[in-house]
Amino acid sequence: MTVLLVNCKNKQTTEKKEDPEVKEKWVQLFNGKDLDDWLIKINGHPLNDNIHNTFRVDNGVIKVSYDGYDKFGESYGHMFYKNSYSNYRLRLQYRFIGEQVSDGQGWATKNSGVMIHSQSPESMELNQGFPISLEVQLLGGLDEGKERPTANLCTPGTHVVMDNQLITEHCINSSSQTFYGEEWIDLEVLVLKDSLISHMINGKEVIRYRNPTFGGEYLTDTDEWKSRNGEILKKGFIALQSESHPVEFRKIEVLEMQD
């Protein structure tokens, strides 16, 4: 902050000039203590039935754990923050730990995700494995030297445009490096309604796309959702995923931006 003193007709006035760097107002979505601001939907179970204590807090970290499971089956789960968002930056850290539950699918090993522009948890069907959304797919490396990028894009019930082409593939790899260990990884997602969405890993952009719309084979087969085929997504919920491999999340925060 600078102060300018001006003498005009023997009167002193003060002009304040704002600092060019406006302080960013990041909001913590996770308070480090509990999951009170989050809603849980696990496939085959009613809203907020957190079976086997899948989503839990331990030492200031959100843990997605399967130590209470005899079998995973198709118990794919998602934990949604209570508010929806449109224009924002999302930051968090994640890491894969431990071993996958015994009957988890091979493709789900070291596999999780962050859903954005998601349908609400209340609108999900009882037996719906994945919300209609854009998934920031998180993957860990399995075999040393074999690439397995993270912060990819998957599209449950959606399509996007990349390089001016409509993309109908379910998953599109990013350009990120592969992480093989249990290190914490910085993820940031920039969401500007439908005009631009960008995924960043450790500060580097790894994929970008725009114009998300409802559509595709994973669009929920109900009259309501089928009638929305082709509709543009401009806002939605943020959710953390459980797909059968233990994963941890921390430092989850959002910076909302002006329309």
Structural write-up:
With 259 residues, the chain is mainly beta. Strands 3, 5, 6, 8, 12, 13, 15, 16, 17 and 19 form a ten-stranded antiparallel β-sheet that branches. A seven-stranded antiparallel β-sheet has the order 4-7-18-9-10-11-14, with no helix packed on it. Strands 1-2 form a two-stranded antiparallel ribbon. 2% of the residues lie in helices and 45% in strands. The chain has a single domain, classed as Sandwich (Jelly Rolls).
- CATH homologous superfamily (4th level) name: Exo-inulinase, domain 1
Largest sheet: 10 strands, antiparallel
CATH architecture name: Sandwich
The overall pLDDT, averaged over residues, is 92
What is Rg? 21 Å
Number of helices: 1
CATH topology: Jelly Rolls
Produce the secondary structure layout.
Layout: E1 2-8, E2 11-17, E3 27-28, E4 38-42, E5 55-58, E6 61-64, E7 77-85, E8 87-96, E9 111-118, E10 134-139, E11 152-154, E12 158-162, E13 165-167, E14 171-172, E15 185-192, E16 196-201, E17 204-214, H1 223-226, E18 236-242, E19 247-256
Antiparallel strand pairs: 1-2, 3-19, 4-7, 5-6, 6-19, 7-18, 8-15, 8-19, 9-10, 9-18, 10-11, 11-14, 12-13, 12-17, 15-16, 16-17
